[in-house]
Amino acid sequence: MEKTDGKMIGNDNQKKPVVANDNDMVRVAVIDLKKVFRVLFGNKMTIIISSFATFVLSSLLIVCVPRQYTSQVMLAPEDDGSGGSSLSDLASSFGFDLGSMKSSDAIYPLLYPDLFNSNDFVVELFGVEVAKLDGSLRTSYLDYLMHYQKHTPWQPVLSKVKKLLRPKPREIPDGMKRKEGVDPFMLTYNEDMIAKKVRENIKCTVDKRTNVITISVIDQDPLICATLADSARFRLQNFITQYRTSKARADYEYYMKLTEGAKLDYEESVKAYSAYCDSHKGMVLQADISRRDELESEKDAKFNALTVLNSQIQTAKARIQERTPAFTILQNASVPVKPSKPKRMIFVCFMTFLAFMCSSIIVLIKDMADD
């Protein structure tokens, strides 16, 4: 500060105090909870009536939805020699399966869910004989899905709307030959819809770390649900076994055919040798002796060939047994006691709470608009 004629004069660089205006102050919105509760309490009848009406309607709605049961099967396939190295264990912890990469099999556990989506696998389940728990029905799974399924009251209306909106289904020409029964190569429209329903009901998942296969089946009847879970498990095991042993079984059949031919050749050579020896008793000519030795050598060679083929058959049998996979069933199929869905209490409580919140918000918004 400089002093001139008894007055204090400030420097230009000195900062001057800044006074804040009222417009620059931040306004904090405060919710008056007392007013909110007062408004809600004043309109309590409106909120109660709307919540009660929602409770009744949601209860009537969820009762119309058929209950469904879930049955699960868990099995672990045989480790196909991928080894238990630390590198494989580390990769498994991150979701990578080095065992399937090293395996020579074209179909490894991670592809089993895709197998359940194929028409060939699904069509095999059509013929499974199923029965209801109360004993009122015993028929094929295909017939059960087509004629004995429970539907909601609004399902026929939705089906008619979908029928009007969807394109015209493909029809099989009269001249086109089709296999008897259900042909997975050429399904009709109804059969294709049933196949989609089966895919929705039956799910297969594989744990990438442990290769544990989980087959889950959903159905409206608990006994049918467990029956289908066990049938799907059996067919999956049979498919894997047939695939793993296909090469060994082909080798076994091939060696069996060769053995049958070699056995006939050996029997013919034995007959020829025996007949020649019987017709040339006391032979002295060298030509006769040479012919006898030739037939004997031919007989011995065919016997040796037959012996080798028999050993090949035994090796092929052992190979079939070696390639047959072993499965450890961790959880067998069982008839469920309680339905898995829909969760009626949860649905009703959620809809009632949602109606309470919506009606409360509407009441508060209306009160703010009146103010």
Could you describe the 3D structure shown?
By secondary structure, this protein is α+β, with helices and mostly antiparallel strands. It folds into three domains: 30-65 and 342-371, no CATH class; 68-245, no CATH class; 249-278 and 290-323. The chain is 56% helix and 10% strand. The protein has 13 helices and eight strands. The chain has helices at residues 33-42, 44-63, 86-93, 98-102, 112-116, 119-126, 141-147, 155-165, 189-201, 222-244, 246-279, 286-323, 344-370, and strands at residues 2-4, 7-9, 69-77, 129-131, 138-140, 202-206, 213-219, 327-331. A four-stranded antiparallel β-sheet has the order 6-7-3-8. Strands 1-2 form a two-stranded antiparallel sheet. A two-stranded antiparallel sheet has the order 4-5. The chain starts with a strand and ends with a helix. The model is unreliable at 1-20, 23-28 and 81-103 (pLDDT under 50).
- Mean pLDDT comes to 80
Got a strand count? Answer: 8
Distance between the termini: 58 Å
Q: Given the helix and strand composition, which structural class is it?
A: alpha+beta
Tell me the strand percentage band: 5-15%
**Tally of separate domains:** 3
Indicate the radius of gyration in whole angstroms.
Answer: 41 Å
What order do the helices and strands follow? EEHHEHHHHEEHHHEEHHHEH
Query: How would you sum up the major sheet?
Result: 4 strands, antiparallel
Number of helices: 13
User: Numbering strands along the chain, what is their spatial order in the largest sheet?
Assistant: 6-7-3-8
Shape: elongated
Helical fraction: 55-70%
Low-pLDDT stretches: 1-20, 23-28, 81-103
